[in-house]
What does this fold into?
Amino acid sequence: MTEDHLPEDSGKQPAKPRTQDEKLAVLNRLKRIEGQVRGIQKMVEDDRYCVDILVQISAINNALNKVGYNLLERHTHHCVKDAIQKGNGDEAIDELMKVVQQFSK
It folds into this structure.
């Protein structure tokens, strides 16, 4: 692990567990994205026009970014806030900045 990368599994738990509604919303978005990916696979199998495929890839990237920003916002409001209140703010902010940098590459 380099200094600007985070491990795939930190071993940490959310400061506030996700509600069932939050879980369902994220899972539903991810299932829609999964369906879009399968659609692109079919487009490639069917030898569809490159631009049509690229448009769909762009839509998937945007959808994944939306899910990621939603999770990032939740993390900031709950996990980072909790860490600051418990006196571990510097570590949480450093971790947050690393994930923002990784997410925005």
Notes: The mean pLDDT is 91.
